[in-house]
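>> Question from a student workshop board

For tomorrow's exercise we were told to take the sequence and the ligand below, predict the bound structure, and bring the output to class. My setup keeps failing. Could a helper post the expected result so I can at least see what it should look like? The ligand is zinc ion.
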Amino acid sequence: MKISLVSAEAAELNVDALAIPVATGQRLTGAALDLDRAMGGVLNEMVVNAEFRGRIHEVLPMPAQGKIAARRVILYGLGAPHDLDGQRMRSAHHELVRASRTWGYKRIAVLRSEPLGMDSLKAVVEGCVMGTFERRSRQTGAAPERREIDEVGLAGFGNGREREVMAAQENGEATNRAREWQNAPPNELTPDALAQEATRIAQRHNLEIEVLGPTELKSGGYNLMLGVGAGSAKPPRLIRVRYHGNHQGGASAKTGEPALALIGKGITFDSGGISLKEPDKMSRMKDDMSGAAAALSAIDVIASRKLPLDVMAVVAAAENMPGPSAQRPGDVVVSADGKTVEVVNTDAEGRLVLADALTHALRNHATHLIDLATLTGAATVAIGHAASAATSNDDEFWSLVEHASREAGDRVWRLPMYADYRILLRSQIADLRNSEYGEAGTIMGGMFIAEFAGGKPWAHIDIAASAWNTNDELTTILRGPSGAGTRLCIELAELMAGAER
Ligand code: BES
Ligand code: ZN
Ligand code: MN
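>> Workshop helper replied:
Here is what the output should look like for this input. Compare the format with yours to find the bug.
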């Protein structure tokens, strides 16, 4: 899909469909109103008469009847202006593109008018690109329901912004790549397959890559990784892709410049292990590597953009299975940083592999840590699918993450880590236990991981709910895999790199 800025008058745009944004409670203004006049007033009539209300995801195609160069006009809704944040902006354009694909339009244009400001360019482009996403079908002989769009023209967004368009397109495509990985069946996307994807990214940009298998994990003391992977015939992999982007060109450990670690939970299937899940809770667990998908997809963009910042992606890839050599509830395991952990529930495996992954990032001189993980079902209870649930040990770093979240249209909401809860992490026999806290499940997941952050600025993004909307009633939140965390990480790196400059 080619996306370009166009400067012709709206009425002269020779496209299959010209799309006009409408917010609820607002009439057409500016360029949209000019176009309406050319159309003989039918657009505003639909709006004024409330046949088109401008609700988000409302999309209405109308024949242009030769009055303008375009064959169709599409009114598409943005919802109420005060509800319109970056995430809903992307969702609205995602829907616009999906509908256009259903109708078979090959060339469309978006006409910027209120409430879309000049600064909405990025959200518009990212949303449109995300709307091209189609889960790759493994059905034999199935005809695709939607067609592909060849061109999107952006009218009224000014000139000379090609770089912004290109960057936004990359962000959208990176999000879609993460979504495709999320959707991949667990027999295809194994820990080793994840390592191969990481290797491909590293080769593409000539990055340093390291993949630790069982032997290296053992010598490095990564016993939590080994414990989680023990029940599976597919060996675990601790993957590290390193992009050296700092100014001095040398290792940031020596130059004292920051090094950001993007740490992804990469459980390629979570059966729960010996603490086996019930069938209906297990069926979606192929997406338990969504955090890994986001981290890898993000570093791909960060490296291709050559940001002046050191960034590493650390992926803890394993399959959580029951089996004769699986770890048991009651096992005590020595983590890579030396703390002992009582595994009271083998289904709380994410925090275990992440603990070792954080240690690995710190050993490789990370100065700032962000982990992304489908960690707790409780995130769906606390916040639901509309945002990722987060915890952080550092207000300054958190405000950067929050800023990135707004820029990226990738929502996060911070939960508190009360000192009073720390006692719940204690075990009778070990330093920590991995479950059975009784309450505050999402916070406790974060507080467990925080123990392994080595006092460095750290944020934990629990994407258990945001990575995959399973609630069919929530129609304005992308259904299925969302790529949550991908754009957040890209943006965070951009901000940190910018602060450097
Ligand atoms: N991968 C799951 C969390 C999850 C649940 C993700 C639902 C997406 C949807 C995680 O490994 C898990 O099983 N968490 C347990 C933790 C508990 C045992 C402390 C949970 O949420 O029940
Ligand atoms: Zn899991
Ligand atoms: Mn689990």
